[in-house]
Amino acid sequence: MQIVFLGTSAGVPTRSRNVSCVALRLPQRGETWLFDCGEGTQHQVLGSDLKFSQITRIFITHLHGDHLFGLMGLLATCGMAGHAKHISVYGPPGLEDYVRENSSRTEIRFSYPLDVHTVKAGTIFEDEEFRVTCGQLKHRVTTYGYRVEEKDRAGHFDVEKAIAQGVPSGPLYGKLKRGELVTLPDGRVIDGATFCGPKEKGRRVVYCTDTTYCQSAIELSRDADLLIHEATFAQADEELARQSTHSTAEMAARVALAAETKLLIMTHFSPRYMTGNPIEPDQLLREARAIFPHTEMARDFMTFDVPRRDEG
Amino acid sequence: MQIVFLGTSAGVPTRSRNVSCVALRLPQRGETWLFDCGEGTQHQVLGSDLKFSQITRIFITHLHGDHLFGLMGLLATCGMAGHAKHISVYGPPGLEDYVRENSSRTEIRFSYPLDVHTVKAGTIFEDEEFRVTCGQLKHRVTTYGYRVEEKDRAGHFDVEKAIAQGVPSGPLYGKLKRGELVTLPDGRVIDGATFCGPKEKGRRVVYCTDTTYCQSAIELSRDADLLIHEATFAQADEELARQSTHSTAEMAARVALAAETKLLIMTHFSPRYMTGNPIEPDQLLREARAIFPHTEMARDFMTFDVPRRDEG
User: Fold this and answer.
1) Cα separation of A95 and A24, whole Å?
2) B101 to chain A: which residues are within 8 Å by CB?
3) A107–B76: do the CB atoms touch at under 8 Å?
4) Among A80, A87, A64, A73, which Cα is nearest to A40's?
């Protein structure tokens, strides 16, 4: 699992930060999932080493333009240049109508199956490897945060050991791989766990934006390996954060602390904190780290490999 | 009058060319008018020396995404960061609904007056300095080309000469400036033309995209100082151009020739002709110049000062 930040500015793009998008690369399945899709997301994909053809799922937090206005262009390009196979889009009520209206007005003919899902709090996607859940945040329009959970995987199966002990190949191997007790044709009972390396614990990544400090962000972020949380404002502008239902860096840190996450990466910074202005980005980092030391600030095209929690 | 090309690619952006937008700078009135507004136009404005606050009119040729998907984001940013005073948007039927639906879905609250005008062939804007007309082109959806005509201006008025000849200041100066015959209070009849330098002939700029070769493009472009015309395809792909109702470079040149324009600048190039591919951009330039030698190819951020036709 690798995170690629494609847009880390709030509201408007700047010369160095685009509006919101985070890519989650899943190399094991050759897929990339996007979270939000601000205008220019397809341009950021072009400027990264991500591939349009691998984009399979897009999760939209809310219907503000700086999180949404890149969606139609990206979907069109995935058809024209990206050789998309199937794309699923998830988001709050209104997103289906938005995609339908815009497709109709601009006569986009998608060359691949596209489906749009309206989410509500709970599990919105699940397969053998992943579960995606969402929770409603506290913003001035309906907004969802997303949590991606990788499922635990059995440890490495030692095939050579199984052969050496005379286990016949076939369906028994699957049971041993899952660590089950197995009775062999010759009557021996063997424990699959003795053929398996340590279990690989699944990782958990949470994306919370746009929101002010709220309990549901904490619940969604519980015990995450990585929390990506908005930090639009510095503490000096806390009142602005409250009025606009956004977060200060301190609020983001308090969510990370309360949820006992391993790492916080802040994003969605107001352009007012550009280097050279009265408050510079480093100030937000200091304010967050005073509360939650394991904090970093995202920048466009920053990549982060989510580490496994324990491999022992 | 200065042209700034902000997007010169067809359909999808590339690393070096964004999707369609052309800016027309009018320094004499501190305004910039945009023609088309593909996704990422606001990013291109940020990367140029244009100012959001000077954008007052936006003309949309047709409702395909590569000419339109930057409009809502640009309008939002003009409100948030651009200190816009008033913006008028012009385009084909459906554009008003597009802006209304998107504004409503994404809850944009414009902080400035915004009006959207549905155009039809003819004059769509006129004031003392400019006239803008449009004509329907030949594309698979309703598409308009735009013609901007600067009105002729009286030549420089020689105030010192008027004072030396004892013309009293006041309303008479205005008449003299317009080259009229004026009777002075002392009975003398003087000819305003003798106080004025040569008339400045207004310039004419025409923007035609997307379209295949058609008579109405020729009529709209008649006698223009600058014709900006799409040239999506090379001659080898003429069949593709006809099928998709786009133009080859040769078609663009034939329009410029028939309309007796002074200069043709081609834009809207298919990404298939990137340098290093079997057909390179220079091939399109050669094909056009074989028919109309005064042809150039646009590239992103290229600027062009439209010269006065005659100042003598």
Assistant:
1) 21
2) 101-102, 105
3) no
4) A73
**CA of A45 to nearest chain B CA: how many angstroms apart?**
10
Asked if B186 is an active-site residue, the reply is: no
* pLDDT at position A114: 97
Chain B interface includes A12 (CB < 8 A): yes
Tell me if chain A has a CB within 8 Å of the CB of B107.
Answer: yes
CA distance A232 to chain B (A): 15
Which residue among the candidates A36, A66, A210, A300 is catalytic per the annotation?
Answer: A66
- Asked whether residue B175 falls in the same domain as residue B248, the answer is no
Q: Which of B14, B271, B80, B144 is nearest to A69 (CA)?
A: B80
Closest residue in chain A to residue B68, using alpha carbons only: A106
ipTM: 0.91
Please tell me whether residue B114 adopts helix, strand or coil conformation.
strand
Q: Identify the CA nearest to A234 among candidates A170, A178, A286.
A: A286
Query: The domain containing residue A182 runs over which residues?
Result: 159-195
- Contacts of residue B107 in chain A, CB cutoff 8 Å? 63-64, 141
Residue at which a domain ends, from A195, A222, A248: A195
CATH assignment at residue A60: 3.60.15.10
Q: Residue B210, preceding bond cis, omega within 30 degrees? A: yes
- In 3D space, the residue among B281, B217, B204, B203 whose CA is nearest the CA of residue B252 turns out to be B217
Question: What are the tokens at A202?
Answer: 């699944």
Determine, for residues B73 and A46 on separate chains, whether the beta-carbon distance falls below 8 Å: no
Q: What is the pLDDT of residue B82?
A: 63
Measured between beta carbons, which residues in chain B are less than 8 angstroms from residue A19? 73
What percentage of chain A exceeds 90 in pLDDT? 79
Nearest to A89, CA basis, from A79, A99, A101: A99
A42 touches chain B (CB under 8 A): yes
Instruction: Answer for the pair A228, A3: CB distance below 8 angstroms, yes or no.
Output: yes
B245-299 pLDDT tens trace: 999 999 999 999 999 999 999 999 999 998 889 999 999 999 999 999 999 999 9
Q: Is the domain of B41 the same as that of B127? A: yes
Shortest Cα–Cα distance, B108 to chain A (Å): 8
- Long-range CB contacts (within 8 A, 24+) of A285-291: A285/A249, A287/A234, A287/A235, A287/A248, A287/A249, A287/A250, A287/A253, A288/A231, A288/A249, A288/A250, A288/A252, A288/A253, A288/A264, A289/A253, A290/A250, A290/A253, A291/A250, A291/A253, A291/A254, A291/A257
Give the closest residue to B195 by CA, choosing from B229, B213, B169, B220.
B169
How many independent structural domains does chain B possess?
2
Q: Which residues pair with B118 in a beta bridge?
A: B91
Q: Is the dihedral of CA A285, A6, A206, A9 positive or negative?
A: positive
Phi first, then psi: what are they for B236, rounded to 5°?
-60, -25
Cβ–Cβ below 8 Å for B69 and A73: yes
Rounded to whole angstroms, the Cα distance separating B257 from B291 reads: 7
* Domain match, B170 and B278 both: no
